[in-house]
Amino acid sequence: MPDYSIRSATEDDLTILLSWAADEGWNPGLDDRSAFQAADPSGFYVGCIGGTPVTGISAVKYGTDFGFIGFYICHPDHRGNGYGWKLWQHAMASLDERTVGLDGVVEQQANYKTSGFEFAHRTIRQSGISMVDTPMDPRLTTIGQGLFPSIRDYDLQIFRFPRVDFLKSWLDPMASSRRGFALVDDGEVKGYGTLRQCAEGFKIGPLFADTADIADTLFRALAGQVKGQVVFLDTPEPNTHAEELAERYELSPEFETARMYKGKNPNLPLDRIYGVTSFELG
Fold first, then answer.
1. Which uninterrupted H or E stretch holds 109?
2. Residue 2, Cβ neighbours under 10 Å: how many?
3. In sequence order, which residues have a C-beta less than 8 Å from that of residue 213 and are 6 or more positions away?
4. Helix (H) or strand (E) holding 94
């Protein structure tokens, strides 16, 4: 590979990778770039030929103990030449001794196992037309700057690793294509979720909640904002209440991935995860 080189991705590179992802049907959010980069500005890489990107990957670091691999893509014109594998090795090396997570598509799971990843659980993408209205519940509040410290602390209970800069961007009330709701009871956050516009429809994620009833209320708050349009929700299979929620609102399974870890499984509280944040960042 005499002309192949690897470097950190620029904002322009991320724009290119997101366009490739859209072409592959991954359906990225319209404003994903800024939030993705905020998660870890040094956590995205491109492999280039003559300075032009042909492969991309994310290797986002969350503190000193955890990292997440995603956004692993090669332009169709350059597949089968080993470029992706070289980039994979570079990305994994950048995560040092951290536990590493990923969401692997079915056809690649055997390859991830050979790299030391172990299966944790399936995640099912559910999709359908939103037919709900946002409930008039006094416990619901839109997420703004004043609520952010409470959301940050609540997110840490469930995601288990700090991602403050990412959340600041993801929950930015000025982001026109994203909106978020929290459910606050007796002054405490009991759950929160976000909705973002994508190339097709709207994705809900994360959707974190203490109980199934709270998750239901938050889902209706979010999906009700785009009634009559397609919504997507990525539900961890072990959370049977999440699957029941999807079925209740006539969302159908679209495809599946496997959450896999290399290193110690962080044992996330899946009973409180009704929708993962994103397959690219965990």
1. helix 109-114
2. 5
3. none
4. helix 83-94
Q: How far apart are CA 177 and CA 173, in angstroms?
A: 10
| 162 torsion bin: left (phi>0), alpha (psi -120 to 50), beta (else) | beta
For the stretch 33-69, pLDDT in tens is 999 999 999 999 999 998 899 999 999 999 999 999 9
- Its sign, for the CA torsion 71, 75, 79, 82, is negative
Helix residue ranges, H only, 137-207: 148-159, 164-170
CA angle, 127 as apex, 125 and 130 as ends, to 5°? 145
Burial call 84-114: b when 16+ CB within 10 Å, e when fewer: bebbbeebbebbeebbbbbbbeeeeeeebee
Q: What phi and psi, each to the nearest 5 degrees, are found at residue 220?
A: -65, -35
Q: Which residue has the tokens 């990292």?
A: 67
CA distance linking residue 14 with residue 153, whole number of Å: 29
Task: Supply 177's token pair.
Answer: 């294509």
Distance CA 236, CA 122 (A): 6
Per residue in 85-141, pLDDT tens?
999 999 999 998 999 999 998 888 899 999 999 999 999 999 999 999 999 999 999
